[in-house]
Amino acid sequence: MEYIKANNLKLTKYKYPIEENLISDLINLIKNYLSGKKVNLYDKINDLNVHLNIKDEFSTDFALKVIDHLINVKYGEITSYSEIGKVIDSRAYRAIGNVLKRNPFPLIIPCHRVKRKNGVGGYMGKINNEWQQNLKKYLLKMESKI
DNA sequence: CTACGCTCAGATA
DNA sequence: TATCTGAGCGTAG
Q1: A55 CA to C13 C1', in Å?
Q2: Three-state helix/strand/coil letters over chain A
Q3: Which residue(s) pair with A79 in the sheet?
Q4: What pTM does this model have?
Q5: What's the sign of the alpha-carbon dihedral A123, A127, A131, A133?
Q6: C strand bases under 7 Å from protein CB
Q7: Which of A33, A38, A91, A129 sits at a 20 to 30 Å CA gap from A138?
């Protein structure tokens, strides 16, 4: 089993040795996804026997519950901060956002599929009309959920 | 302990 | 409709 840590994705420094063809497989997956192919990235990288070291990235119990639920939100599906709250039995909607804000695997851990009750909501730490939010809207539109 | 935040429902105009 | 308020609560520092 092979693990990838968040900083590995910068392709600058590897904590674990990763084969070159695995990297190109990963790149192709993401290219396919961004070009509109209906692939669920999290499942696909599991198919490549790549497993994210989630427990290293999210320390608290609360955060792990949020992420555990989120990785089961598949391509084209949608959830909301309050819906996640319902599942994990918490009303800390903003705290859920604070967890997702530190998601080291955007696209793969699909925090773009978490919408605000009224509107789209923030993405990658931003709540205003920055490029991050436009990307979130783009992804949702691509998955036909806007 | 404090202050903050990818939220929400309700109030107000 | 749009904008404002306070409740709510987990977390980093």
Answers
A1: 21
A2: CEEECHHHHHCCCCCCCCCHHHHHHHHHHHHHHHCCCCCCHHHHHHHCCEEECHHHHCCCHHHHHHHHHHCCCCCCCCEEHHHHHHHHCCCCHHHHHHHHHCCCCCCCCCHHHEECCCCCCCECCECCCCHHHHHHHHHHHHCCCC
A3: A114
A4: 0.87
A5: positive
A6: 7-12
A7: A91
Strand C contacted by A98 CB (< 7 A)? yes
Please, are residues A28 and A76 in contact by the beta-carbon 8 Å criterion? no
pLDDT band of residue A29 (cuts 50, 70, 90) is very high
CA nearest neighbour of A85 among A103, A98, A102 = A98
pLDDT per residue as tens digits for the range A59-82: 999 999 999 999 999 999 999 999
Tell me the pLDDT tens digit for each residue of A104-128.
999 999 999 999 999 999 999 999 8
Written as six digits, the tokens of A10 are 């910068």
- A84: which nucleotide lies closest, measuring CA to C1'? B7
Burial of A21 (0-12, 13-18, 19+ CB in 10 A): exposed
